[in-house]
Every structure is written in C-alpha cells, then in structure tokens.
Amino acid sequence: MTYSNAKTTDESLPRRKPPKTQGLSLNGFWHDQRFRNFVAQAIVIAVVIGFFVYIIGNAQRALSDQGIKTGFGFLMDSAGFAIGESLIPFSASDSFLRAYGVGILNTLKVSFAAIILASIIGVLLGVARLSRNVMLNRFASIYVEVFRNTPQLLQIVFWYMLAVQLPGPKQAFSFGDIAFLSNRGLVLPGPGEGSGFGFALIGLVIAAAGVVFWRRHLEKRLRQTGKKINGLPLSIAIMVIVPAVIWTVFGSPSQIEVPALRGFNIRGGLQLSPEFLALFLGLSLYIAAFIAEIVRAGIASVNKGQIEAATAMGIKNADVLWRVVLPQAMRVIVPPTTAQYVSLLKNSSLGVMIGYPELFNLNNTILTASGNTVEAIIIMMAIYLSLTTTIAVIMNWYNRSVQLKER
Amino acid sequence: MTSHHLISNAQTGASAARPAPVAASGLVHWARHNLFDGIHNTIFTLLCCALLIATVPDLFRWAIWDAAWTSANGADACKATTGACWAVVQEKYRLMLFGTYPYEQHWRGALVVLILGGMSIVSGFRIFWTKWLLVAWGGAWVAIFVLQLGGVFGLVSTPTHLWGGLPLTLLIFFGTVIGGLPVAILLALGRQSNLPIIKALCIGFVEMVRGVPLVTVLFMAALIFPLFVPESMTPDKFVRALIGMLMFFAAYAADIFRGGLQAIPRGQYEAAEALGLPYWQKTTRIILPQTLRIVLPALMNDIIRAFKNTTFIAIIGLFDILGATKSALEDPIWVSYGTEAYLFVIALYFVVCFSMSKYSVSLERDLNKGNVR
C-alpha cells in the first residue's frame, strides 16, 4: 500500500473522507466498548444502591413498628446494665456512650498486653529456631507448629477452662505470698484504686521519650567522633528514676497494695480476671507462633556475606547482631508483623465466647438494651476500623524508619 | 611445617603412630557438636533438659498413667483419679462429632466426613489431577447433599438446622473455600479494572471486611441481616453463616490474588491484547493460570486459616464441633472435664491443619521445581 501510494502522487484522486470520530454513534452502539462499560457500571451501582435502600427501608419500618427511635441520640441515655470489669468507673446509670468507652478500653487493655507478650515470646522463639542447639531448635519448632495449627478460639476456650478449674481463693497458688492464682484469676501486687499510678504512667512515657532522645544523641556522637559510650546504664536509670520521682511527688507510693486473703476472696492489688487471663494468653501465645516464623525468616534473609564481612572487619559479636543483622532483618520483619498485630486486635473480639467485656461483647449488650441495632453496628464497625487503621499507621511510620534509606 | 614433615616422613619411612582421628560420627560426636559446643549452648541444653524433667513425667502420669479411660461407670473413674479423664471423650464423642443431628442418622454424617476426607486425600495427589477428578467431585457432592439433607431414597429428612459437629464444620469449610475463591478472583480482577465505579466498590468491600473482625461479619450475616429483610426472603441460618464466612475469606484471598496479578509481567497482558483476545479470554487463558501458580502457597495459608476459623460459627449459635462440644459439656456429670474434651478437639484440628500445611510445603516445592537451579 505505502509503496504504491508513494508512486502515485496524483492530485486528481478523490480526497479521502476524514476518519469517523469515535463518538457514540447510534448505529450498533452496543458494540461500543465505552457504552458497554457505562451500562455495566450503571447496573452495578443501581443494584448496590437498590439493595441498601431496600435493607435500610426495611430496618426503619421494623424499628418504628417496635417504637424505637432511630438516630444516635440513644448514646446519652442511661445504659441500665453493669459491666464486670472496667478501667473506668461504670454503673448502670451511666450512659451508653460511656459503655462504649469501657469496651474500647478493655479491648485496648487486652490487645496491648497481648501484643507485648506475643512480641517477646515471638522474638525468643524465632531466635531459638535459628539456634544450632538441636534441642532448643526442636522445642521452638514444636511450639510453633502446635500453636499455629490449632484454632485460636479453641485455644482461648481451653485456657478459660483451665483458669476456671483452678482451686478456689482459699487454696490459691501463692507466689511468695504476694501474688495469687485461683479460679478468681491472678492477683498481683499493684496500685490500689485511686492511687497516683496514672502519674507514674505519664512519668514512664516522659522517661521513654528521654531515653530515645539520649540514644539519638549518643548515636550522632558516635557517627561524628567515633567515640562510643555505653548508654545502657543511664537509660535504665532514667526509666526507673523519672516515673518513681513523679509518682512520689504526685501520687503516693504507700498505696502499693499487696493482696491478701480476706474472707472468701483475695482482696487488694491488681486483679486480673480469669476471662482476661484466658483471652490474654489465647491471643498472645497464638500470635507469638506467627511472629516467631516472621522473625526467623527475617533474620535468615540477611545475606551470610554481611555477617562474614562484619566479622572479618573485627566487629564484636554483639555489634554484628545489633548493627549489621537486625537493621537489615527489620526491613523484612516489620510489615508482616504489622498484619499480625492488627489480626490480634481484631481477634480480641473472641472474648465474647468467654464473657470478657470487650468492644464486640459490650456492643451486643448495648444493641439489645437500646434496640438501636443499626446505629450500634455502625459505631462498632467504625471503632474497629479506626483501631486497626491506627495500628497500621503507627507501624507504617515505624516501618519507614527501618526501611533502606536510599539517597 | 606440614609439608616439611611429610617430606621428612617420606624420606625416613618411619614415624610415631598418630592418634586415631576424633570420631566425626556417632552419638557422642553429634551431641558434642549440636548440644554442647560452647558455654551458651551447654547452658541452653541443660535448661531444656531441666524443662523436660520437670514436665514430662508429670504430664505422662496425668495424661496416660493415672488417666481414666472408660466411662463404663459414668464419671466414677474420673472422680477417683487425679489424672486426665479421657472417659469424657468416650462418653460424649457422638455428641461432639455430630451435634444435634438425629442419633440414629449419625452414620450418614460419618459417611459425609469419610467422602469429604477421602476425596480431599485423593485430590492431593497430582497424578489424579484430571477432568475425571472434577467428575468424581461432582458425584461426591450429589451424594453428600443426599446424605446430609435426606428426604429422598427413604432417608429421613434432616434440614440444615439439625446439622452439627464435624460434618457441619467440614461443609462450612468446603463451602467457604469453593464459594470464596471465585468471589476472590472477581474482587481482585475488579480491583485491577479500569472501570472506576467497579474498582471503587471492590476496594471498598475488601478493605472494609479486612478492617473488622470476622465475628462482626458473621454477626451481621447471621443475626442482623434477618432483621432487615422479610422472613420469606431470609435464607436459613447455615446459608447465612456460610455467606459471612465466604465473604471474609474472599476479602483476604482477593488481596493474595491481587498480589499474584501484579506479579504477572506487563508483557503477558500486552501480548494477549496484541493477539486480539477479548477480556475474558485474556484473563482466563493467559493471566489466571499463571497467577494461580504464584499465589498457591499464600492461598494455602489462607485456606488453613479458613479451616481454623470454622470454629467461629459456634459464637453465632451453630453447633459445629466447638459448639457441639460446648453443649455436650453442659451435662452436670461431665461439666468439670472440659479440658480433656477440648484437648481432643484441638488434637483433631491439629492433625488436619498440620497435614495441610505440610502438604502445602511439598506442593510449593513441586511447583518450583522448574525454577530451581
């Protein structure tokens, strides 16, 4: 074609029509891809909207038949039920809103504690899985296989079974007469109600910030001058002294209570219910198995040559671990660990099976007590979504700080 | 030095007998090399031994030596011993394994379990991966529904609200995976689509479901959904629970498929388009077969999780193996032997999940054979 065209440069040839514009022509328009796309999407969106209108319309009708006022006004009404355990005072005359507060705090309490224990056990197991010691290695891998391959809910129910079958308070297992384990749960020495413990917690946060700052300063100094100072003693000192001072000034250290058996129960100190213990163990021991695998894979992913090179340069063993292996392993470890933390928080909702008053469990109570089903579900979903997103955001921020800095 | 010695030895032809080489094999060498090399390892080994000595004898005494095995005299044997009460399993296993299913019809449930288990094992062998396997599965499902539902061939009718125990657990699991995979693929494709509304809906659905606990999804599907639609239009509870499980599984699997789709080189899409293949042909013949291979290991993890998650339906009041065990333990005579009963169920789950995870590892190795150098 092109060849013959090139030859005939005849002006007299009839000029070709300009190509048809690719508009929506009425002729065979159903063959037009864009038209099809438009129709497909219109149908999908019509179906989705129709479904929700239908569902919500039905719900409104059903609820108004039962005389339930829709809307979020119910949050201020008094709840009319009591809650077994709570971080903030709660009584039946308090509002539904406060009940949600209790639920969120209980969920956070168990998740936070479980995340810490899961991380500690997970890291220890992950390192043990890499050990050349066959016995240690085998122990860790048995743990991982057993806890990974059985349902978490069954584990939680199992721990709960064990917890409630413990002997009663009078025959409680005693740990040096300061901590007691019985079928009423675990009692540890701790601040009694209304002590200055909150201040100590604030002090701990301040101290942690101080330690981070002090460490950064040391790191910078090391980079600039090459002088190395062991920052550990001062770090520990800061972590201990600052909260202690703040506690003594604002709170009262005499309010640490040692639990003791009085009457038929053990009173005083920090009371951890059997429900809390079962959920705490069930969440952390299960996730620990997954974290162990992540840690093992992360450390194994560090090229052997890196370790050999560091050793050849005469770097101490501890420094090889902290400055060569771990920084590289963290890049592999952090993202999947984030997913595990999120999963742990979500699975704290399994507390409903054993009666721990976390968010999902309390939401069921609220939903029944108020009758505002739709609103309660929207609130619960929104809370869970924001909690999981918060964890993801915090961990992503941390992840950015461990990722490879490419300049 | 060495070479000097060698030379001088060769010249003189006589030398003192060298000591026998240190054994490089045998138990002692192995123990020294793996358990006692260095002070740290020795400490760890001793700690492990201490742990074993502290736990194993007590555990053995509890679980085997002192255990009560038979429920011939009710719970008497259990009350008399400090060991484990395995008698509870002997006494309650029918209730635990079949739940509320009519007692005389338990053989039908057992047959369903056998068919599903047998077919799964057969499907694990790659030599059977032919179209006849699909035909066999089709036949198996017909048999399963006939057995489980009844009402034909003179079988007593057993509607879904009577289902319970292991058959219910397995049916929910298979339903979740078989129904969830197509939904997951569609969601993943939708997420890659260039139709903005469909893309947004798929992203919204996947992220929404992944951001909330499975319990809440199940709760919505099983307990809240019926409030919103007229009774005549509500599917029964088994189906509602299945839909909840399926949606949750699909949202997670969709994310795995998305990763797989992204791992396919751009050139594959372009080549398919250059050949003039329409969208569905391009997707089903070129893209998906390659994706499936990439995502299989991750997918197996999700499938194992789906099996573990079947226990969640006990929370919404279905009598799966956990729910059935829980209700079996309401018997006041046996109520205090829950630990043993749950250990039995845990062991059951462990056997299945452990085999699945080992199979997944071997399958992954098999599929990667072509890539191993």
What does the model show?
The complex is a heterodimer of chains A (407) and B (373). Chain A is mostly helical and 407 residues long. Among the domains of chain A are: 30-65; 96-189 and 258-402, MetI-like (MetI-like fold). Chain A has twelve helices and eight strands. Chain A is globular, with a radius of gyration of 31 Å. Chain B has helices at 2-12, 26-34, 39-65, 76-80, 87-98, 106-124, 131-149, 165-192, 196-211, 214-228, 237-263, 266-274, 279-309, 321-328, 338-367. Chain B is mainly alpha-helical. Chain B starts with a helix and ends in a 6-residue tail after the last helix. The chains are: A mainly alpha (407), B mainly alpha (373).
Secondary-structure map:
The complex is a heterodimer of chains A (407) and B (373).
Chain A: H1 2-7, H2 33-65, H3 96-130, H4 134-148, H5 152-164, E1 173-175, E2 179-182, E3 185-188, E4 190-191, H6 197-225, H7 232-250, E5 256-257, E6 260-262, E7 265-267, E8 270-272, H8 274-300, H9 304-312, H10 317-347, H11 359-370, H12 373-402
Antiparallel strand pairs in A: 1-2, 2-3, 3-8, 4-5, 6-7
Helix pairs in contact in A: 3-4, 3-8, 3-11, 4-8, 5-8, 6-7, 8-10, 9-10, 10-12, 11-12
Chain B: H1 2-12, H2 26-34, H3 39-65, H4 76-80, H5 87-98, H6 106-124, H7 131-149, H8 165-192, H9 196-211, H10 214-228, H11 237-263, H12 266-274, H13 279-309, H14 321-328, H15 338-367
